Fold this protein.
Amino acid sequence: MISQVELVLRLLLAAALGSVIGFERERLAWAAGLRTHMLVCVGSTLVMIVSAYGFQEVLGSDHVVLDPSRVAAQVVSGIGFLGAGTILLRGEVIRGLTTAASLWSVAAIGLAIGGGLYTPAIAATIIILVILAGLKPFEDKYFAARRGRIFRLTAARGSMTMIQLNNALGPRSRLVRQFIVQAHPDLPDQEEISIAFTRLSLSDVQSVREKLRAVQGVIDVTDADATMQ
């Protein structure tokens, strides 16, 4: 029988490894941060410990056969409910999938620690941390060419409607996720228009800007990276 001290050490190791990944998520101000990842990892470890060692007395009885992996298996499916709470849909952009995946991974680390697989648990923590923090700069660099964009227009009153916008942009109009028209605060015969797009390449940005400026009644067009808003 494994000692109680080692069981406690497994829980402490789970808290430590969960905090490493949780700190990276906390740094980016995600809903599931340091404490959430620590709790998931410790909880998964405890479930695994209970599953593996909590039924020793029952297993000693006649005609009793238990599969200790069945309890731990429920963590894999159960953690999905917690991960779903971190996923948000903003317009047509889904946010939080990476955090949900990190919670699922932390649960797996906890199960490994609870089962006494220390080396794979530590190795997985390092690999996950490299994926979350180390690959982020490369992802930003290579995918920076396609970002959401917000165009702000100043136009004569009634000159820009969804019909005119669709006619001006053609197929690119399907990338519009928000279209807001407001009266100009100082000039009653003009309007301020905000048009938000999903992902546009640099060439698309230039083309959309020119097409919007070509619409009759449009006075000025400016644009910005939507991720900076």
